[in-house]
């Protein structure tokens, strides 16, 4: 039996996406910029997909820009806005627990003269609101805080952060990386009061290589790649038609599954937490409250993450030691370390992440395998 609990890294495309893509690829292969019938049909697909995504975000379709994924969307938001508005100020406020595509981009901007400030997080993953308010000043042009942490599933109060930032400096633009939140948490851009939002298709069972950056009307970004006038020149290049089609279709299927079993992810997570709590030397880093139902981070004290991962894999359990974009080369979980957790906890953490394709019964099998793995690894360690 194989159990795939690594859905925060990527998801298997829905069967409906795969099946309909075959027909789409053979029939709708025109370039949406072409003036002939095939091009017009392709353009219609792009417009429909934008409308579907815009409806989920509470935006208008002309505020939706397709990218190659969450990483590009984050780069375009941060670099595109920073360089376009650097004459007004150079301070950007963020957190040390952002996805690598945000942290690495901020480091790049810092090397290019921008003042990057990070707000502390506590052991529960909460931001220090007082420190945040002090860091936002008249030279601050941008705030970037993720909606759901990709390692622990912690849900950040982006709405409150935006209110604080815009009250302190009405000209501040707020960006949120909502890649792990889209379709699982509330992502209405107006309710959250954000100006830029990044999402990605392959986290919700669409193809890899397709993402979206929501750009509020009136917010100007400098493009980071150059070419034709597709997407108003903000993100040039021929649109990824299979990816766009798959994104829209995945949303449709996801909505149906969520409507039929609205508590499925929470039930899976709760059951796994209850089972793990019976084992010795296990630390739950993603409590049921204040974290996404789709992510559970757990530390198995005394056992290195990589060793435990491969042991679980031998039983057909697929999980992760953290972000797929940062898990290679590091021996501890950086997010847990930034939260002030002991190195023993950061070095032994495993991330289980769930989707609507998982079954509650898979948790029971996983718990059996985890118990066997713990017994085996702790026995040989003695």
Automatic annotation (TrEMBL):
The keyword Ribonucleoprotein does not apply. InterPro entries: Aminotrans_V_dom, Aminotrans_V_PyrdxlP_BS, Cysteine_dSase, PyrdxlP-dep_Trfase, PyrdxlP-dep_Trfase_major, PyrdxlP-dep_Trfase_small. It is an enzyme of class 2 (transferase). Keywords: Iron, Iron-sulfur, Metal-binding, Pyridoxal phosphate, Transferase. Gene3D superfamilies: Aspartate Aminotransferase, domain 1, Type I PLP-dependent aspartate aminotransferase-like (Major domain). Its cofactor is pyridoxal 5'-phosphate. Its EC number is 2.8.1.7. Coiled coil: none annotated. GO terms for molecular function: cysteine desulfurase activity; iron-sulfur cluster binding; metal ion binding. It holds the Pfam family Aminotran_5. Residues 3-365 form the Aminotransferase class V domain. Belongs to the class-V pyridoxal-phosphate-dependent aminotransferase family. NifS/IscS subfamily. This is Cysteine desulfurase. It comes from Caldicellulosiruptor acetigenus (strain ATCC 700853 / DSM 12137 / I77R1B).
């Amino acid at each position: 039996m194989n159990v795939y609990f690594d859905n925060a890294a990527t998801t298997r495309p829905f069967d409906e996406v795969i099946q309909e893509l075959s027909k789409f690829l053979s029939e709708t292969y025109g370039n949406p910029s072409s003036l002939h019938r095939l091009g017009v049909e392709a353009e219609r697909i792009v417009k429909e997909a934008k409308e579907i995504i815009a409806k989920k975000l509470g935006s208008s379709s002309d505020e939706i820009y397709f990218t190659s994924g969450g990483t590009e969307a984050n780069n375009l938001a941060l670099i595109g806005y920073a360089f376009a508005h650097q004459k007004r100020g150079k301070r950007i406020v963020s957190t040390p627990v952002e996805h690598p595509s945000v942290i690495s981009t901020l480091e790049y901007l810092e090397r290019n003269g921008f003042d990057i400030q990070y707000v502390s997080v506590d052991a529960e993953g909460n931001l220090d609101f007082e420190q945040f308010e002090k860091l936002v000043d008249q030279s601050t042009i941008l705030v970037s805080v993720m909606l759901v942490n990709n390692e622990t599933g912690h849900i950040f109060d982006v709405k409150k952060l935006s209110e604080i930032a815009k009250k302190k400096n009405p000209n501040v633009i707020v960006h949120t990386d909502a890649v792990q939140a889209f379709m699982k948490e509330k992502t209405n851009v107006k309710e959250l009061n954000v100006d830029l939002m990044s999402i990605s298709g392959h986290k919700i069972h669409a193809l890899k290589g397709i993402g979206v950056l929501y750009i509020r009307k009136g917010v100007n970004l400098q493009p980071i790649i150059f070419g034709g006038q597709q997407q108003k020149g903000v993100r040039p290049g021929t649109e990824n038609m299979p990816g766009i089609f798959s994104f829209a279709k995945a949303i449709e299927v996801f909505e149906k599954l969520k409507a039929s079993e609205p508590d499925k992810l929470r039930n899976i997570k709760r059951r796994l937490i209850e089972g793990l709590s019976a084992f010795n030397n296990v630390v739950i880093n993603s409590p049921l409250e204040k974290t996404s139902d789709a992510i559970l981070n757990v530390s198995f004290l005394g056992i290195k993450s990589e060793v435990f991962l491969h042991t679980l894999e031998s039983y057909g359990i697929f999980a992760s030691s953290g972000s797929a974009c940062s898990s290679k080369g590091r021996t501890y979980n950086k997010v847990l370390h930034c939260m002030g957790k002991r190195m023993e906890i950061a070095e032994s953490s495993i991330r289980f992440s769930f989707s609507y394709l998982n079954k509650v019964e898979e948790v029971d099998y996983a718990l059996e395998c985890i118990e066997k793995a713990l017994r085996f690894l702790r026995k040989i360690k003695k």
